[in-house]
Write a structure and sequence with these properties.
CATH architecture of the largest domain: 2-Layer Sandwich
Number of domains: 4
Structural class: alpha/beta
Number of strands: 10
Helix content: 55-70%
CATH class of the largest domain: Alpha Beta
Largest sheet: 5 strands, parallel
Distance between the termini: 111 Å
Number of helices: 25
Strand content: 5-15%
Radius of gyration: 37 Å
Length: about 525
């Protein structure tokens, strides 16, 4: 595939050119777009397209300036000029620059563009093709490199097999410095922000930029895309950490500038033999997972990776109970503090990212169980858990937790209506009707139609006393009437009013009246 860049300050023109033909069928792929000559030349230097289709009149720097700069950089690059009727005054200068192909924007047709591109392809096959091989040869070379990288990454493949395959590919063995390098675009290329086609195009363009940069530095690179990540094996003379960091910084700033995305990265220690470099296979796989904790633009080395530990501290702590308590009390500031505290704990331990997300998913489920009465169904919690399991970095995961807690608060707020008095009166009446029976918090909360946690907070707020204390006070007041009858035993009174233990009844009686059952009865026997 020959690479194409389209340059025009009108977006609709760029879209029209792209949509006019099937580029791949002709052996081309569009690797970049630009809206002015200045940014186009920067992208040209980075991506090295074989064909540039450019407008003449553009802001900042025009198409003729761009053509001159490109021809100075590489005379073999093919240029096609897009023109309007009044642009032919520029033709003389374009001829000097050895540009002979023009397309009138107003009369652009599929067949004309195809015809020009096929002529360009013949020239490229005759020039670039002689030096770099045909498109099919390039494809085979890429597949061979991917196969070699696959061998290097397979710890179960012997080093002797790897050496034999290097020899078959006419590659030198242990004459340079070596390391593995990982680029991770997952956090920047969230699917909800970009379509799958857009993501594929961006990754392809980033790959081109990465490969070209290492080639410019006389470094050889094997690479393979894994989803939204790129794994590389770097081979270069006199390679060191400082030089590698400089290359990565350049790539980060270029990709940020051209595509408005970033990446996280990691490299294994640089070694003088391939055998030594392969000893860090497990490390590079672990580093790929560890990037979950890093921010955009951060780079990881073996020296900067902190010690990792197992994730067994989120749900084993009292934090979930504390969060639920803060939710019940509508203390959103306290909830946010708790979430930040959990994030800090996770970041300090930096365990396996999947285990962390599973633990956080369990935490969501535990909170949901406490407040499930406020939700119509359980679809909401599943949606949050799915988002959480797809989180690409810790900050994103904790943001989902905050969103979930806010959602719980909103559901609770929505359920709180002006009929609070009705709910409390209904609860009081239920106690009056059932004080002699066993009454649980679940029973009475279900009776008034709210969660037991919300009921507890609401009841205390409205009555100034906890539900259990109120229930006991009602039972004791009722018991006092019956105790006036000397024919009724204390045991009978206790069982009559919901106390299964007469001793507990006596203790409770004294707590609420200030005197023992005997003292109380003696007052009425006189």
């Amino acid at each position: 595939m020959y690479k194409v860049m389209i340059v025009d300050d009108e977006m609709l023109v760029r879209i029209g050119v792209k949509a006019l033909i099937n580029w791949q069928d002709l052996g081309f792929e569009i690797v970049a777009e630009a809206s002015n000559g200045l940014s186009a030349f920067e992208k040209y230097v980075a991506l090295k397209p074989d064909v540039v289709i450019t407008d003449i009149k553009m802001p900042k720097q025009d198409g003729l300036w761009l053509t001159k700069k490109i021809k100075e950089h590489n005379p073999k690059t093919e240029i096609i000029l897009l023109t309007c009727y009044d642009d032919f005054s520029y033709a003389k200068e374009a001829i000097k620059l050895k540009v002979s192909d023009y397309i009138l924007k107003a009369e652009m047709e599929e067949e004309e563009l195809k015809s020009i591109l096929l002529e360009k392809k013949k020239k490229l096959d005759a020039t670039i093709g002689k030096n770099a091989g045909s498109g099919e040869d390039k494809f085979l070379m890429k597949k061979q490199q991917e196969a070699l990288l696959g061998l290097l990454l397979s710890s179960n493949r012997s080093i002797d097999l790897v050496r034999k395959e290097f020899a078959k590919a006419n590659l030198e063995w242990n004459t340079r410095s070596y390391c593995f390098l990982q680029f991770d675009f997952r956090a920047s290329l969230k699917s909800e922000k970009n379509s799958e086609d857009q993501i594929a195009n961006i990754i392809t363009a980033c790959l081109e930029l990465i490969v070209n940069k290492f080639k410019d530095e006389d470094a050889e690179i094997f690479y393979k895309q894994f989803g939204k990540s790129i794994t590389c094996f770097i081979m270069a003379h006199n390679l060191n950490e400082l030089k590698l960091q400089k290359w990565i910084s350049y790539l980060y700033s270029s990709i940020k500038q051209y595509f408005n995305i970033g990446f996280k990265s990691a490299n294994s220690p640089i070694k003088d033999t391939i055998e030594e470099a392969r000893e860090y296979l497990n490390w590079i796989f672990e580093a790929s997972d560890y990037l979950f904790y890093l921010s955009d633009g951060e780079h990881l080395t073996k020296e900067t990776m902190h010690r990792r530990s197992e994730v067994q501290f989120i749900n084993n702590s009292s934090m979930v109970k504390e969060i639920c308590k803060c939710i019940e009390e509508a203390d959103s500031e306290a909830v946010n503090r708790m979430v930040k505290q959990i994030e800090k704990m996770i970041d300090e331990h930096r365990g396996n990212s999947l285990e962390v997300k599973l633990e956080l998913s369990h935490m969501i489920n535990d909170i949901f169980k406490r407040f499930d009465v406020f939700f119509q169904d359980d679809k909401d919690v599943f949606a949050f858990q799915k988002k959480l399991m797809n989180a690409e970095e810790l900050r994103e995961a904790m943001g989902i937790i905050v969103d979930f807690v806010n959602n719980v608060n909103q559901e609770i707020t929505n359920s709180r209506s002006d009929n609070t008095d009705i709910r409390i009166k209904k609860a009081v009446q239920y106690i009056e009707d059932n004080y002699g029976n066993k009454i649980t918090l679940d029973d009475i909360a279900g009776h008034v139609g709210i969660s037991k946690y919300y009921f507890s907070v609401l009841f205390k707020k409205e009555k100034g006393i906890t539900f259990s204390n109120y229930l006991n006070s009602v039972r004791i007041e009722k018991a006092k009437q019956l105790l006036k009858n000397p024919q009724v035993t204390v045991n009978d009174v206790a069982y009559e009013f919901g106390f299964n233990d007469p001793q507990y009844f006596s203790k409770t009686f004294k707590k609420y009246t200030g005197m023992t059952v005997t003292e109380y009865r003696s007052r009425y026997e006189r």
